[in-house]
Amino acid sequence: MKVAYILEGITEGWLTYEIDALEDIGVEIDFCPNNPVTYRDFADYTRADRKSFGKDVINLTNLLLISPSKINSLLDRLRRYAGWRIAISTLAMAEGIKVRGAEIIHAHFAAGPAASAMVVSELTGIPFAFTGHGYDLYREPIDWKFHAEKCRRAAFVRCISEFGRRHLLDKTGVDDRDFYVIPCGVDTDRFRPNNEKVDSSSKDGIILTVASLVPPKGIPFLLKAFSDPEIKRLGKKLVIVGDGPMRDELMSEASRLRVDVEFLGNVQNSEIEKYYRKAEIFVLPCVTAPNGHHDGLPVVMMEAMASGVPVISSNISGIPELVEDGKNGILTPEKDVGAIANAIRTLAQDDDLRGRFSVEGRKKVIEKFNINDVAKSLKELFIKYSKVER
User: Fold this and answer.
1) Are 301 and 331 members of one domain?
2) d(CA 38, CA 252)
3) Looking at the 3D structure of the chain, how many domains does it have?
4) Which CATH number fits the domain that encloses residue 222?
5) pLDDT of 281-339, one tens digit each?
6) CB atoms within 10 A of CB 166
7) Residues of the domain holding 160
């Protein structure tokens, strides 16, 4: 079957894991970027590099000649919500999606992409669905009335955690009949311990973080925890993979605290496994930002756990659905520097505990977050709801 994926952007990682797994089981993905700013990012995945905003304007002009009243109404509404460029891109892509034979439309993120999917669905008659993640559900201000409309009109709504599903239902007040929890996932054959055997006692003394350097990741609290004198005496090194707007601030804070930390910046997704294989512990102390933004359920923690690396994180959002405190990892209250430091000290000095968490963590990912199972569940929904009259 063919599914049109409406996306605001694309980078290698959780999204390409899902797309590759779907294509492996016979789902053809029609990539449909809804923001002209990101068209070039899709060059390796689709013919979208031949798409241009100029062509969008021409296509929209043709639509206006055919149905001026309807198109103007949709254009104005989407423009007020997402801006002119996304509004024009969305309306211009509709006919192409229909001509290429998509059986259902799927958008990642409940904000702009889901709005685009709803409008394209209205123009083409093709049912649409969307996945809710993180910023689109938690970062205020959010137009919850419009979110509710998208939920009601969607063929189905997928959330990546039960926490996210409950949050979206509570905020929109819609019926939960067509709401599903299907998490993101990882390839547990690709992300695995060295030599197919979990052994956390022969690592390089590295404490690893993989994250964008933005407030919800809680990196300032990790740096403060890592400055604990006992941790310094253990001789561990903090390695941070990722980049973002907080980089300079974090580097200055690390210097002030005199912690042994290396900021590696962004690395190719194809290279990320080697960092997990060197790591003794993985820490991502997620927090809730002042605007309510926090992670939904970080895929990097799935990668770490599948790789046999014991994990420390925060007991917020959907994280406890992956990391079970005391069974396959440690969860601390968010922003609790003392608790984070204590968790690092505990794991760093207890080979048996790290070994147990390594085994149980990988087991949890295999059972609940294997990308092949995720893809099969999504395909079943695509097939089911492509045939439902709305």
Assistant:
1) yes
2) 32
3) 2
4) 3.40.50.2000
5) 999 999 999 999 999 999 999 999 999 999 999 999 999 999 999 999 999 999 999 99
6) 15
7) 2-185+370-386
